[in-house]
Specification:
This protein is of the alpha+beta class. Helix content is about 30%, strand content about 35%. The protein has a six-stranded antiparallel β-sheet, with helices on one face. A hairpin with a 5-residue loop joins strand 2 and strand 3. The radius of gyration is 15 Å and the shape is globular.
């Protein structure tokens, strides 16, 4: 991959896109046991660096529904990719990858693990199958 456009084009060719704003792609996957999980891939950058990034985000719970945030953070520390972040009232697993030197396999593995991690955390700490 060399750019956001390259990654976005790859995702458009290989997956069903639920929403496409140009800099944000939303995908919804059906998992085992008829569960679903949404993943958002967005274009990102940092003011301190000209490097372009892709952020992989998968929501798993409303913050108000999580009874033990400390236990959630301990659980999340056991996973290889992603970190738990808060977007408004919702919690998500987020992982970011630099695009300039990215090979597609270096994207797909974190993409799949972010999706699976969010689903596991949703099962354990969320309420039902909302995301």
């Amino acid at each position: 991959m060399a750019s956001w456009d390259d990654l976005a084009d790859y995702l458009r060719r290989n997956y069903k896109i639920a929403e496409d704003s140009g800099t944000l792609l939303r995908l919804v996957f059906t998992l085992n046991d008829d569960r679903s999980q949404e993943v958002v891939v967005t274009r990102g950058s940092m003011a301190s660096s000209p490097q372009e990034w892709a952020m992989i985000v998968s929501f798993f719970a409303e913050l108000s529904a999580v009874r033990d945030v400390s236990a959630l953070l301990v659980e999340a520390s056991e996973y290889v990719v992603g970190g738990v972040v808060q977007y408004g009232p919702r919690l998500a697993v987020r992982h970011s990858v630099p695009l300039a030197t990215l090979d597609i396999d270096e994207f797909l593995e974190p993409f799949n693990l972010t999706l699976k991690t969010a689903d596991l955390l949703e099962q354990k700490f969320g309420i039902g199958d909302r995301f």
